[in-house]
Amino acid sequence: MKSKTLIIKKFQEVKSKGFIKSSRTGNTAIGKTFEDAMAIKENNDKLPDFGEFEVKSQRFLSSSKITLFTLKPTNPENANQILLQKYGYISGEQKLPSLHTSFTTKPNTLKGNYSLNLKIDKRAKKVFIQARNLHEKKEISECFYTFKDIELATKKLKNLFVVTADTKTKNQLEYFHYTNAKVFTGFNFQKFLLKLENDEIQYDIRMGYYKTGINLGKPHDHGSGFRINRDNLPELFDDYFEVS
After folding, report:
1. Rounded-to-integer distance, Cα 132 and Cα 114, Å
2. Which one of 10, 77, 132, 158 is least enclosed by Cβ atoms within 10 Å?
3. What are the tens digits of pLDDT across the range 150-203?
4. What is the reported pTM?
5. CB contact at 8 A, 61 and 179
């Protein structure tokens, strides 16, 4: 695989540079800075970032979970807005509704009123977002993903390059030293479904409203994502190795 040799070579070049000044601020800074150093053009399409590889970056001491992909539910078309309207809660000085929650196939508890969980229907080949009113004990399963849409979203993960970095701050600017990398090849969708079924993949909903600026009060969808503990990441692939 030509791109595997090239991405490893480019990573080692970036690593040799030591600490690099961040290209932007916020949570996406580490990924954008690495992409810039690797000369990767920023994209939101369905193609991998670098040749045949999707690239992901994490701070060395960050949360152990890594986002595999973000994807809005298959049905209905405005599923995220429906979830926000039905199960959102008031937050912030503007008193606008938000819905920030995480769950697996095990139900969580959302502000004492609802529980949310994923429900896998292998016969229908769908993953439902199941809601239960804790007071009425009524289950609602109107929003779902098809296996087909999830599998399509994971195509970018066929080969994955995961980088971790040490960080430091100088004059209020963040710097990254990309020190470690892992190469994963052969993403297995059936293994993904098994992990999902065994509560080892977490589903995040991040819905809210703009709190400032010209978009004040308008819905802001940060994306619904599937996340896994990075220690379990190798179990989704046929092979992986570390780059020194």
Report:
1. 5
2. 77
3. 999 999 999 999 999 999 999 889 999 999 999 999 999 999 999 999 999 999
4. 0.86
5. no
